[in-house]
UniProtKB/TrEMBL annotation:
This is Fas apoptotic inhibitory molecule 1. Belongs to the FAIM1 family. It comes from the Eukaryota. It is found in: Cytoplasm. Plays a role as an inducible effector molecule that mediates Fas resistance produced by surface Ig engagement in B cells. One of its GO terms (cellular component) is cytoplasm. Keywords: Apoptosis, Cytoplasm. GO terms for biological process: apoptotic process; negative regulation of extrinsic apoptotic signaling pathway via death domain receptors. The keyword Hydrolase does not apply. InterPro entries: FAIM1, FAIM1_dom_sf.
Length: 182
């Protein structure tokens, strides 16, 4: 089995439905290009005469657009860059940290990754969009949902400072969960 002999790049991309692994094989003698997302083959091209170019595919439940750019650096050296939604991976992740909050927690021996999309107030848990119920409370809002048999809510409170905006806090079984840095 010659699988993964031409592996030239691996990226980890954190999206609302989870962290996805993108692997890219580039056979510089055969021109072969193979893209794997989470171990599943998405694109396979054999015998490409052009060794530079791009491959575009989707990642995750929301079918987020991803592009691998193949550029010649010098002679037979190549550079591989990943773009998500038309932005470099670095730019995309920086922007994402402004538009989402992520919490990682363990409940009854199971690990959970909870993501809040601030623009839509959608809540994701381990790759699934949760059913939520929003309510107004004295100092802000609460978005309620359930994980297993645990009651959870995300509290949104104004920081009182324009630059900071709204502070989101995840509460599970009446205890505050610290935010994860991805």
């Amino acid at each position: 089995l010659e699988k993964m002999t031409d592996l030239v790049a691996v990226w980890e991309v954190a999206l609302s439905d989870g962290v996805h692994k993108i692997e890219f094989e580039h056979g510089t003698t055969s021109g072969k290009r193979v893209v794997y997302v989470d171990g599943k083959e998405e694109i396979r091209k054999e015998w490409m005469f052009k060794l530079v170019g791009k491959e575009t595919f989707t990642v995750g439940a929301a079918k987020t657009k991803a592009t691998i750019n193949i550029d010649a650096v010098s002679g037979f050296a190549y550079e591989y860059t990943l773009e998500i939604n038309g932005k470099s991976l670095k730019k995309y992740m920086e922007n994402r940290s402004k538009t989402t909050n992520t919490w990682v927690l363990s409940l009854g021996g199971t690990d959970y990754r909870v993501v809040l999309e601030k623009d839509t107030m959608d809540v994701w848990c381990n790759g699934k969009k949760m059913e939520t119920a929003g309510e107004f409370v004295e100092d802000g809002t609460e978005t309620h949902f359930t994980v297993g048999d645990h009651s959870c809510y995300i509290k949104a409170v104004s920081s009182g400072k324009r630059k900071e905006g709204i502070i989101h806090t995840l509460i599970v079984d009446d205890r505050e969960i610290p935010e994860a840095l991805e």
